[in-house]
């Protein structure tokens, strides 16, 4: 199993880094749209849909991504190039509902442990997860591949540090009815690692954060907290659907949703703040 995980991880990173640094804007858009399609197909499993319906969800995701790109090509770097006003028009349409969902609805959802029992509700929820994440991956790359990589590294670091801190110090369960393996000590360890990472790179951050350490500290803690919420949310849905992984498309790692669960909650919020910084 370990050998499989390592081999898959090597291929994943090679594919991702190659796409991130070498593809054109159009190529990156296609690459991220493919990720969104697989995530939508996996979302169908969480909704307990049949194989044909799951395929239809993947096709729907591609169609919606293509439609949004056609409506606002400058928002995704197509046509005459990236335009911040266009990016904001499309971003506001997706990021604001996503922010309300993650900051207001999901904490209540986790507490009540609502099931995805209604097909329409499940479909809308899936679109609210996948489409804003798709757009954030597309738009944040306009800040530079390294910038997007640095943002994603926050989530990866939080997960890795939480895992090791939890194994070493974990005693108090964070959400035993949702994800028994997660502990408060692990979450705190992830937060400490993210704060250290953020202050280490503070000279590369926008002035509003670099020159205000308290604001930067709050932002980093908030980002870590939201990433944990995203992780717990998918864990809840998998538990309710009786699934260990969202799929098996990534040998040893599960599915795409398993790899981007924390990114679905963090990237849209980061992209929203990024766009607001230009207004």
Automatic annotation (TrEMBL):
The keyword Cytoplasm does not apply. The chain crosses the membrane at residues 6-39, 51-70, 90-110, 119-140, 146-165, 186-202, 214-233. GO terms for cellular component: plasma membrane. It comes from the Bacteria. GO terms for biological process: CDP-diacylglycerol biosynthetic process. Pathway: Phospholipid metabolism; CDP-diacylglycerol biosynthesis; CDP-diacylglycerol from sn-glycerol 3-phosphate: step 3/3; Lipid metabolism. Keywords: Cell membrane, Lipid biosynthesis, Lipid metabolism, Membrane, Nucleotidyltransferase, Phospholipid biosynthesis, Phospholipid metabolism, Transferase, Transmembrane, Transmembrane helix. It is found in: Cell membrane. GO terms for molecular function: phosphatidate cytidylyltransferase activity. It is a multi-pass membrane protein. Its EC number is 2.7.7.41. PROSITE patterns: CDS. The keyword Transmembrane applies. It catalyses: a 1,2-diacyl-sn-glycero-3-phosphate + CTP + H(+) = a CDP-1,2-diacyl-sn-glycerol + diphosphate. Its main location: membrane. Belongs to the CDS family. This is Phosphatidate cytidylyltransferase. It comes from Candidatus Accumulibacter meliphilus.
């Amino acid at each position: 199993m370990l050998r499989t995980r390592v081999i898959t991880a090597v291929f994943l990173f090679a594919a991702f880094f190659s796409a991130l640094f070498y593809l054109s804007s159009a190529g990156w858009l296609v690459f991220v749209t493919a990720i969104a399609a697989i995530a939508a197909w996996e979302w169908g499993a969480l909704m307990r849909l049949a194989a044909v319906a799951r395929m239809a969800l993947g096709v729907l995701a591609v169609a919606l991504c293509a439609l949004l790109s056609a409506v606002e090509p400058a928002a995704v770097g197509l046509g005459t190039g990236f335009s911040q006003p266009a990016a904001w028009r499309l971003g506001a349409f997706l990021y604001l509902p996503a922010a309300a969902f993650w900051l207001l609805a999901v904490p209540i959802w986790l507490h009540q442990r609502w099931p995805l029992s209604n097909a329409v509700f499940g479909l809308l929820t899936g679109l609210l997860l996948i489409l804003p994440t798709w757009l954030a991956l597309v738009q944040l790359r306009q800040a530079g591949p390294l910038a997007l990589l640095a943002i994603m590294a926050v989530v990866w670091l939080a997960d890795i540090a939480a895992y090791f801190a939890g194994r070493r110090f974990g005693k108090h369960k964070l959400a035993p009815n949702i994800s028994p393996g997660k502990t408060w000590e692990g979450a705190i360890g992830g937060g400490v690692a993210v704060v250290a990472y953020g202050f280490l790179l503070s000279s590369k951050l926008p002035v509003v954060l670099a020159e205000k350490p308290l604001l930067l500290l709050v932002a980093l803690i908030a980002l870590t907290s939201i990433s944990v919420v995203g992780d717990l949310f998918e864990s809840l849905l998998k538990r309710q659907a009786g699934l260990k992984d969202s799929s098996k498309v990534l040998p040893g790692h599960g599915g795409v949703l398993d790899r981007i669960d924390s990114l679905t909650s963090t990237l849209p919020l980061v992209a929203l703040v990024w766009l607001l910084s230009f207004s």
